[in-house]
Structure formats: C-alpha cells, structure tokens
Amino acid sequence: MGDGWDHRPRGDDRVRAEDHEGKDARPEDLLAQEHRGADLGDEDFERFVRRRGRQLTQFAYLLVADRAQAEDLVQTALVKAWLRGDRVTPAGREAYVRRTMVTTVVSWWRLGRWRERAAGVLPEPAAAPDLTTTVDQRDLLLAALRRLPPRQRSAVVLRHYAGLTEAETAAVLRCSVGTVKSQTSRGLAALRGALATAETR
Amino acid sequence: MTDPMIEELLRQTADRVEADPALSERLRGRVRRVRRARRRRRAAAAGAAAVVLGAAVVGGLSRHWTDDASQDPTAVVATQPTASAGVSGWRLRTAPVPDAAAAGDDLGMFAVGQSAVALGYRDGHYVASVAATAGEPFGSARPSSPARLTSAVTAVSDTTLYLWGGQDTARGTPLAGPVYPPSGLAFDVATQTWSVLPAAPIESRDGAVAVWTGDRLIIWGGLLGEVPSTGTPARVRSDGAAYAPATRTWELLPAAPGDGNLVPQHAVWSGGRMIVWARERGESSALEGGRTLVLDVAGRTWTEAAGPTLDAAGSSLVLTSAGPVAVSVLFGQSHAARFDRATSSWSALPGPTVPSATICPTSVVALLAPAAATAVAVPECAGGTPQLLDAAAGAWVPLTRWGTGLSGIASAGESFLLLWKPPGRAAPDAAASLQVLSPS
Description:
The structure holds two protein chains of two kinds. Chain A folds into two domains: 1-120, no CATH class; 122-201, Winged helix-like DNA-binding domain superfamily/Winged helix DNA-binding domain (Arc Repressor Mutant, subunit A), CATH 1.10.10. Helices cover 62% and strands 0% of the residues of chain A. Chain A has eight helices and no strands. In chain A, α6 (150-160) packs antiparallel against α7 (166-173). The termini of chain A are far apart. A six-stranded antiparallel β-sheet of chain B has the order 1-2-3-34-33-32. In chain B, strands 4-5-6-7 form a four-stranded antiparallel β-sheet. Chains A and B meet through α1, α2, α3, α5 and α8 of A and α1, α2, β13 and β19 of B.
C-alpha cells in the first residue's frame, strides 16, 4: 500500500473490534464497527447534507432559538462529522451530528452566549386570535426554549421534535433514561408555564 | 397545553427555517480549508528536518512580546512575524479551571485540536472535562466506564485523546505482582464521549510509548512488573502494535532490533517515522546506555543508533523543525541534543538555563508545531525564565518579556500552549490555575 502499511490480513495479527467490544462502546454505532472499504467520500456526505440538511438546521434552530446561530451550529457539527470521514458510519452519522450539536450548545451556553437574550422579556402576544396568533406562539415558544438550560432544551427537542425514544435520547445526551425523563418533564412543564402565562395576559 | 400541542408547535416553529441551498457549498468550502491546512501541516512535518527555524523568527518571537500588566486577568499581548505559521499575534490569559471535585485526581491537561482536555481519575473511572476552545470554561466531567488502571500511556490526535496500557490497581497485590488487563480507551472531544478500543495484539504493560501518526496510534515497548510470589523478574517488552481508528483494527509492528533489553523513554512521530529514545535496562545511571530506534513505516523496518547521551530523569523529547530535540533537566543541571535523521546521530546542544537554588522541573514542548516548530522550555515552578530554542544558533533564548510569572506544566496544541498548575502543586492548599497562550 502507498502508505507503507501492509493491509493484507495476517491471521492472528489482526484483531477485530467486535471480538473485544467493551460496554462503553457507543450504542448507536457512532464509530465504524468494521472497515467498509475506502473512504465513504465527499459525494456521499454531500448527499447526506442535501437529504438531511434542512432537518438538521431546524433541529439546530430549536436548540439555539436563533436562525443565524442555528446555521453556525449546524455547519460546525457537519464539518466535524465530514472531517471524521469513515470513522462515522452512515448509520450513525445523523446521531453523531445531533450529539455534536448538543455538546456544542452546552459549551456555548456555558460561555454565556445567550444569557443576555434569555434575560429579555417575552414578546407581547397579539390582541386578536387571528393568523398571527400562531406566529406569536412560535415566538413565545422560542423565548421559552431560550430560558431552558441546554440539556433540558435538548431533551425536549430530541424527544418531542426529533421523535427519539427515551433510550435514544439518553444515548445522545450520554445520560440515563431516568435523567431524560426528568429533564424532559421539567422542560415541558416550563414551556407549558411560559405559554400559559402569555395566553392569560 | 398538551404534549401533542407542544409537539405541533415545535414543528411549526422549526418549519420557519427553510433549506439553505448553499449549505453543501459552504460546508465544502470549510472542509476544503481545513484539509488544506492539514495538508500544509503534514507537509511541513514531513519535511521538518529540512527546515531550519531562522534566527530571525526566534529573534522576532523574543523581541515582539510585550507585557500588558493593565489587563485583568493577567494578559500579555504579543506580535510575531507572520512567517511563523501565519500567526500575527499572541495573547496569554488566565483561563477557568475544571471543577476539581468532579474531575477527581488530576492526571494532566491535554491540548486536543483547538480544545483543552483535563484528564482525571475518580472512583475507578477516568474523567475528562473539555473546554471546546482552549481558554473557554470547561464543561461537565465525563467519566469513562470503570477502568481501574494506572500508568496508562496517552497520545493525542486532532480529535481524540487515547489511553492505553497500565495496571489494574484493584487486582494487583504486592505478592502476586501487577495485573495488566487488556485496556484502551478513546475520548472523542467533539462529542465528549468515551469508547473502548478493541484489545491490542500485544500485552498491556507499563512504560510503553505512544505516538499518533495522523491516522494511527502506535504503541511500542514497556515493562511487565515482577511477580515476587513466583520469583519472576520484571520483563522488558520490545513488541508493539498500531491501531487504525478508521477500521478499528490493530496490526503488529515488525520486530524491533536489540536483544529485547531496551526500555523506551520517549517517542515522537516525524516524517513517516517513529523515533524512540530508549535505554538499556539495568544501565539507568549510565549516559552511554541511550539508544535511538527509528521505525520506518513505509519500509516496515527498524534502524538503531547510539545516544542520546542524556540522563533520562527529567527528560523530554520534542519534534522541532530542525529535528527531534531531547532535553534533560535535573537538579539545576540541564543538557540537550538534537537528532539528525540523515546521519542517524545526535549532536549536543546546551540545555535551557534552570534555577540552581531550587529544584524546578521544566516542561519542554514544541510551539508552533509542525510548520515552524521550536522547542520552548517552561519552568513548572515560579522564578524560572521561559526559553525558546534558537535552532540555527544552537542556543536557548530567554523570553524575559513573557514574565517570571509564566510557569506550569506545559502542553502544546498547534498554535497554543496550556500552562497547568494542578491543585496543591505550589503548596498543599494551592488552588489550580490554567494559563493559555494562544493567537490573539
């Protein structure tokens, strides 16, 4: 081989991953479990971006409640996944991108990137229940989402927007199912409270 | 409002965001830029031995640092020639430290890509905390699965911190000797997740060396501890293996030269070769016991050379643009040597100046690696002076403008330094501190 390494199988010299997988191995198969030949390639990743780009951007939008930051977030996560090449399998790619977005959001949150905005007041609801009511509810929802701690927000979005099961959400957030339940429950309660408060004004 | 109503509202809210038609193009551009930068770095690393860092660059580095004591936290703003890795200015600042209670016993601070990773050990787990960009606050501590191991070796890729080998402290006993279970962990910094490596085709052990090649983790050498109950002496291991994350497979390295009596001290990866500074076992106090083993990956061959004639205690081996440089700092004495791959020989260099009145360990790391990598010696205690190796002149240039307050255990990213003082380092009750030197 051009890189100087002998890639031919050598019997006992090679050890397969599945023979020794520990319990810490990623449940959603984020990393390649076996070699699938050459690099999956840029075209394949671009197809993935074309196919799932909008949904991932929408997911990012709910995580950060800001369009520009959502674009920044989704690009950051996709570039990381792209550069990982075939170390992220096609099956685990979307989960990898979502998890990277969540960890990035937590990191941004710790930097106080949204604190000024989170402290702002909720927008005033519309006076009449016309079509703009829905628009206002979306604004209220975004404002309420911004007020949630990032892991609570991530749990709500993963469970109730992305449609992941509790176990899948736990895998993405790297926490227990019980934690997912409590985070989701608290997040939903906070959203309900914020929306109800606005409706009764 | 019911859950289905909230779900519908979430969908309606998300639907506001249309597809970005240029998303693929934007990503392609960003990926292309990163790859181009990586290629440049690889090319620079491959030709590192041929590139001599000019005295002008070194002079520029030392000349252009300026103190800015008015800033709080302590900050030093500096400029340097753009010829050095395209960096126009530098800034030193005090950074937040990881949560000591969550991080457990300190094992080290690592630069991984642009991130800082604090590694600790708590309740039978390795624990990692990440500052996504060095200097930012650290995130929550991420424990691995139970791993009662000590003395694992570490290696760092652009994205991952690898741990391999070491003893199982729960199972080893003074009589039965140490226990070495198959071990290997990888911590992905982007997702902040741990995974277990497949078992290597070589025994776990103490004292191996580990290097990251760009696409593989190479482990070589080490020792198995003695077993008093059977009278089995400590055994040197001179085998090794390479792990490819892309395929999650290991491959044995070719047999190393020597009579199986060489114990590795340090290793670096340079120009497609792993360069190992080893010593003959049983000759720990003899300077002539040093050996250099070079693994040519393309040819799957080893070559052996003499030296360096340096004391292994307090030593470092770093890759500079002028070749691998070994440094030994011990009890106020310091020596250095540079390895010339073309002639497979070491030439002596002066060592960095170290305080003679006190014992002060010194970190030696490569700054601006790999494009214009030069060795920087940083005192781990207060009072010493950071120094930069001027490879052309073969001398260490004191960086007095960095200030005598700049100290700590150094680790280097591509263009930044982390200076870490673990809790209790300076005094039993001293708090931890972290300084980051990075492009401004």
